[in-house]
Amino acid sequence: MTKRPLDLDGCLPETAHGGSAGDVGGSVDGLAVQKLRSYRSFVRQALQASRRGRVLDCRKRRVPADDVRRSCLAAGRGAAGPLGLRLSNATVVGSADLRALRIPVPLSFVNCIFTDPLLLEDADLHSLEISDGRLPGELTGPPEAASFLPGLRADGVRVAHDLVLTGTTIRADLHTPASRIRTAAVWLVDAEIGGRLLAAGTRILSAEGQALQCSRARIQGEVRLVNGFEAVGTVRFLAARLAGYLDLSGAQLQCDQGAALDLNEAEIGGSVFLLDAVPSRARAAVRGRIEMGRTVVRGQLLIRNSDLEPSAPERNPETSLSELTSARPALLAPHLVIHGRCAIQGATFIEGGVVLQGAELRSGALFGGVTIRNPGEIALDLTNATLAADLQLAGASIQGTVRLPNARVAGAVTLSGGDLRDPADRTNIDAAGLRAEGDLDLRQTYAAGRLDFRGAMISGFTHAEGAVLVNADGETLSLRRAQVGGDVRLCDGFRSTGTVVLAHAVIAGQLNCDGAVLTWQPPTPDKDETPDQPGLALDAESATISGGIRLGWIVPNGGVDLSQATTTYLADRPTTDWPTHTRLGGFRYERFAHVPDARTRILWLAGLRPHDPRSWEQAASVLRAGGDHAGADEILIAQRRYARKIRALPQTTMQRTADIIQDVTVRYGFRPQRALALLLLLIALVTASLSIPAAVSTMRATDQDAVVFATSGVAGRPSPEDRCGGGRVRCFNPFFYAVDTVVPIIDLKQRATWYPSSDRGGSYLEWWLNVCTILGWIASTIFALSFTRLGRT
To answer: By the number of CB atoms within 10 A of the CB, which of 95, 306, 390, 444 ranks highest?
Structure first.
């Protein structure tokens, strides 16, 4: 078959305005309109209108696709004008095959209907427009406008300027030679676009596969899928390079399975916007997953006043980036890099999880006021993420778990005013190993679960004023082994139902619990066992708090554990602050913030369970360091008495008796003068007993010649003038004899010289003297030990 040569001559006669009479009227895109004449060659009329800078209005007529191709071929040979081939109101019949063509002038189809897909693989175009004729900023096209395309295959196409699909409905499921498995309505794989990709109000519908496939595309301008843009199927920019921004304001994306928007490994030179439309304020909505794994955004990621809802996961993920860390991820962006701000804010509702594992957010992240619902699953995952500024979650409403393990935040972490519910594994926030260079702000936060900051390093303060944390029979706030550079403020209305854990934490500032209410709630009734003792409302075992502890809390139920903790000062109300079940063994503090009262402290310590003598000793050492030695001794004496009273240590009857003796005599060694008084009393009693004439008459002494002496002289020969036999025996003196009897370390030779005579009834006196000797030994020993402080141990 011989092709008919193109006839470019013999055009209609022109009027004075450069057109034939009756064929010019109206305008499109500011260009005059030339109406199509059915009796003339379409190619000739199209080229004629092009050279005259006009739009050829086909008046809803059917135009063979082959004529469109012939016109493009002629344009490639220079037969068209600089404003290009512009058709409107045409119905293009057949497949417009423009593959591998070079068309150096603009190609425009306004309000046209194609019956078959447009084929542009490897074509080289100046620009391409398929639109409904709406002007920039308009939300709709002209009345009765209709632009329809049953598919676009443009893999490898090169467009020097803009590619415009505004207002067009594209419905197709096309295969390409490169992909026999997946289908798409629009194929732009490996495309190169030197200008913008514009699709305002465009509808791209795919019943089975992808809506827009732009993998590995190179686009030098912005990509605007805005103002009612609708896609059913995946919009895919896998590994694409966009020099400008990606705008999805007011877009509606839907994919029943898998990703609705795939930006995996893409590089975007500007920002990514998913916002409500301007000026209609229509909300953007994505029903399907957004994937941005290893994407680089050199601007900001801004999602505002939008709705995100995940779809079912793909059964056969195309890449490893589709492997889910959450059962329902709405945004799956592991290792995402954003140079600007990452912001999800306003009235944004996300049904599903936001996964940013290993992300690098160089201007921080702002999720203020966002609503994320993923009950029992991961709601926000920033595991191993790096933020070069603040992490803001103020006012967020989150159902699910926020994960921050080993994240690095070069600023504050703010969750103030947040509402955290329905977490996975009863953990609202999992931030083990978090590193934050600013404050941790939990003020006015409500959390129905655990806030876990185990091993975290927080350079600033930890604020939890007014927070309400509920996790019955579990941990509410955990700073176990955490390091906090400032104060930990659990005050001013802070409420915890569960256990606040500060065990092994290092806090450089103050622990302030003034005005807090800490309650431990017992296990639910359906559990098999109920513990004999209540659980802990505060667990601060082995914590180091350099700035002191200020209490003033209320602990209506549960206990407090400060065993082995260390601080500088303790500001408390001893009679009201401490619950009965308080563990203070090994708790070390340097001073009391207020003037201590020994009696008050004794009542405080006696009301604590379990009994631990170390807590008493610490209180005594603090009083002693403050100069109150008497008060310190009073506390230690009370501790020994209390231990005996509650039988803190198993004792035999002998040991218990000895304990009572120590108490009565020298107050466990803290009153050694009482032993001295006992010695003086014994000396006085012995002296008095030896001053009685009947007792004196029984006393005898024997010299070296076996001569027996009485106190009045030689026995049987009284001689008051020579009672000591001229010095042969030491004269008897009741007082010195009493001293010699009672005080064992003194030897005045009285007891060694004189003795009671049994034949004169002196046996009773001898018993009495022996008992006094024993008592003297005991009293002297106790005095000596007490004086040297050995009796206090």
So the answer is: 306
Instruction: Return the bridge partners of 128, or none.
Output: 107, 163
**Phi, psi at residue 596, to the nearest 5°?**
-80, 150
Return all residues near 248 (Cβ < 8 A) that are at least 6 apart: 225, 226, 229, 261, 272, 273, 274, 275, 284
Tokens of 521: 């709630």
pTM for the whole thing?
A: 0.82
Six token digits for residue 609: 């369970």
Task: Characterize the bridge pairing of strands 713-714 and 717-718.
Answer: antiparallel
Report, in angstroms and rounded to the nearest whole number, the Rg of the chain calculated over CA atoms: 49
Spatial distance between the Cα atoms of 562 and 710, rounded to a whole number of angstroms: 72
CA distance between the termini of the chain: 121
Q: How far is CA 447 from CA 153, 392, 398, 444, in A?
A: 52, 17, 10, 10
DSSP 196-211: -EE-TT-EEEEEEEEE
Q: What is the pLDDT of residues 408-466, one digit of tens each?
A: 999 999 999 999 999 999 999 999 999 999 999 999 999 999 999 999 999 999 999 99
What are the CA-CA distances from residue 681 to residues 678, 686, 772 (Å)?
Answer: 5, 9, 10
Q: Which helix (H) or strand (E) holds 621?
A: helix 613-625
Strand ranges inside 94-227, DSSP E = 96-97, 102-103, 107-110, 113-114, 118-119, 124-125, 128-131, 147-149, 152-153, 158-159, 163-164, 168-171, 174-176, 179-187, 192-193, 197-198, 203-213, 218-219, 223-224
* Per-residue pLDDT at 532: 55
| Euclidean distance between CA atoms 101 and 69, whole angstroms | 9
Strand extents, DSSP E, 249-336: 252-262, 267-268, 272-274, 284-291, 296-297, 301-304, 306-309, 329-332
Q: Residues 761, 766, 771, 772: is their CA dihedral positive or negative? A: positive
* Residue type present at position 627: G
| Measured CA angle at 130 (ends 124, 131), to 5 deg | 155
What torsion, rounded to 10 degrees, do the Cα atoms 410, 411, 415, 420 define?
Answer: 0
Element (H, E) at 660: helix 653-666
Q: Residue 16 gets which letter from DSSP?
A: T
Residue type, 499: T
Summarised one tens digit per residue, pLDDT across range 549-591 is 999 999 999 999 999 999 999 999 998 999 999 999 999 999 9
Rounded Cα distance, 658 and 649, in Å? 14
**Residue whose C-alpha is closest to residue 105's, from 74, 83, 77:** 83
Is the distance from CB of 212 to CB of 183 less than 8 angstroms? Answer: no
Q: Which H or E run contains 366?
A: strand 365-366
